Amino acid sequence: MSLRRGKAMSRSVGRAIHHYEMISDGDRIAVGLSGGKDSLTLMWALQERLSRIPIHYSLFAVYIDLGFEKDPAHLVTSYCKEMGYKLQVEHTDYGTLAHSEENQENPCFLCSRLRRRRLFEIADELGCNKLALGHNMDDIIETLFLNMCYSGQISTMVPCQPFFKGKLTVIRPLAFIDGWSSKTRVLPQRLQSAAKSERCSAVCTRRTGR
User: Kind and range of the H or E element at 189?
Assistant: First the structure.
């Protein structure tokens, strides 16, 4: 792993956390893992900060198995065990349900909605007051343009957003990391196999052309 890249990424994560006041002492933070590089890097960054900051918070990794045949749950589980992360794996059929023949209009929207709802529920079950997601700067900008083009609304996801009257706050510590930087994010070599496993890329490519 590149020490220089690691420091640069950590600084960007730290700036976002301080700017939006995302994390406080004593927070219990559920971290939504998708198996991709963004969320795995986010978990690494949040854990790495604990050794050099004056506050303490608890991290709980949560992975939603969407039910696809080649879901990399075992790779994520193995990596989290090696790194000493607390991981909860939730097995569902959200992916296959959303991409079924009965739901061809907007499968990715339904899959995302079901996954997000379950993440909220698990965060509550774990007693967490924060839910960290791995969206980066490009994701935020892309959502803005999608909403403008398809919904006629000027809106996007925000780096720090309270839900349920403040009971749970969704935070996005990678908000200051752009897409180019995210392609070269700092990951140990042993993590590449897990991060490169795309759970639904074939299905989404067929339906969206991406």
Answer: none
Domains, the chain, ranges and CATH? 3-208 (3.40.50.620)
Distance CA 71, CA 76 (A): 10
Phi, psi of 30 (to 5 degrees): -85, 135
3-class SS string, 130-169 = EEECCCCHHHHHHHHHHHHHHCCCCCCCCCEEEECCCCEE
| DSSP designation for 190 | G
Residue 147 amino acid letter? N
For residue 139, is pLDDT > 60? Answer: yes
Helix (H), strand (E) at residue 63: strand 58-65
* 75 residue type, one letter: L
Q: Is 81 helix (H, G, I), strand (E, B) or coil?
A: helix
CA distance 34 to 197: 10
Model pTM? 0.84
169, two tokens: 């706050």
Structure tokens at 22: 């995302």
Q: Which residue has the higher pLDDT, 14 or 37?
A: 14
